[in-house]
Amino acid sequence: MGKESVTFLQVDEESAGQRIDNFLLKTFKGVPKSHIYRILRSGEVRVNKGRVGAERRLVPGDVIRVPPLRVPEPRSDRLTPAREFAVVYEDEALLVVDKPAGVAVHGGSGVDFGVIEQLRRARPQAKFLELAHRLDRETSGLLVIGKKRSALTKLHDLFREGGIEKRYLALVKGHWRDKLRNVRLPLHKYLTPEGERRVRVDESGKPAHSVVRLVDRFQTAWGEFSLLEVELKSGRTHQIRVHLAHLGFPILGDEKYGDFALNKTLQKAGLKRMFLHAASLRLPHPVSGERLVLASPLPAELENFMKRIGGCGSALN
């Protein structure tokens, strides 16, 4: 473990604009999130000698006093393989890549490394690379990464305030009837007895809004399936997966909320992953304000499965 001593940090231009809780979580990687919030609540963290709340946004020149923390020794990044991902859009402010299924966006929770660590390893000259949002490990598609602190802060604001239109494609079990349906169901995060993170619809949860559009329906040898386009109006953990499963339309291949018996059958038929893909993004450029329209086609494994069910069944329009 690392040394325990009081730390003084001065905020530079690159770190300005972010909340102090996020700054500390990034600076002291490996320290539990609960501990960071405890020292903030207790007033042990000082900015310019004064107590601050977790929401305090940093400005250049701020001096932060952090009490002694036990920080794990950093693991060697030699264990992280360098990897580039298919680039959908890139300029000096942001990078949008096409994330494959089965790759976490970042390390943690039993995963040594993810997209962001592999990108940093592949681009040692890059001064700044940070995730602007998250995708589940099992989900493929468009992932936005900030290349400047100012751009990242703006992207975070856009995601939080609904300024980015995010649409996904999901193939689900069942006969979805509505051409357009607004799903507003609150979501609550909890841990299973085994310590795994899960989400359920619960009145005590946070508001969540999904807009579901019917794309196509198929009658197959394994039952009826519906291809849906889901637009996220909020960005809760597992939102699409839980909303659809709660309504009785689990996503095919979903190992947390899906139809497990059907998933096993479909694995033998060639669907070896969850059928959820982040297909499109519309957003103003975080620096210029120019309208960006970005798209990712279905990955080959999902496209091939669609061809198979189209060939073995019939479309129900």
Q: Give the termini distance in whole angstroms.
A: 61 Å
Q: How many β strands by DSSP?
A: 17
The share of residues in helices is 10-25%
Helix/strand-derived category reads alpha+beta
- Beta-strand percent range: 25-35%
Give unreliable regions as ranges: 312-317
Based on CA atoms alone, the radius of gyration comes out at 22 Å
CATH class category of the largest domain: Alpha Beta
Core attributes:
alpha+beta, Structural Genomics Hypothetical 15.5 Kd Protein In mrcA-pckA Intergenic Region, Chain A, globular, single chain, four-stranded antiparallel beta sheet, 3 domains, 317 residues, Pseudouridine synthase
Describe this structure in words.
With 317 residues, the chain is of the alpha+beta class. The protein folds into 3 domains: 7-66, RNA-binding S4 domain (Structural Genomics Hypothetical 15.5 Kd Protein In mrcA-pckA Intergenic Region, Chain A, Roll); 77-156, Pseudouridine synthase (2-Layer Sandwich); 162-315, Pseudouridine synthase. Helix content is 21%, strand content 30%. The chain has helices spanning 20-27, 33-41, 115-122, 149-161, 239-246, 260-268, 300-312, and strands spanning 7-10, 46-47, 50-51, 63-66, 86-90, 94-99, 130-131, 140-146, 165-173, 180-184, 187-191, 197-201, 209-220, 223-232, 276-284, 291-295, 314-315. The strands form 3 sheets. Strands 5, 6, 7, 8, 9, 10, 13, 14, 15, 16 and 17 form an 11-stranded mixed β-sheet that branches. Strand 15 and strand 16 form a beta hairpin.
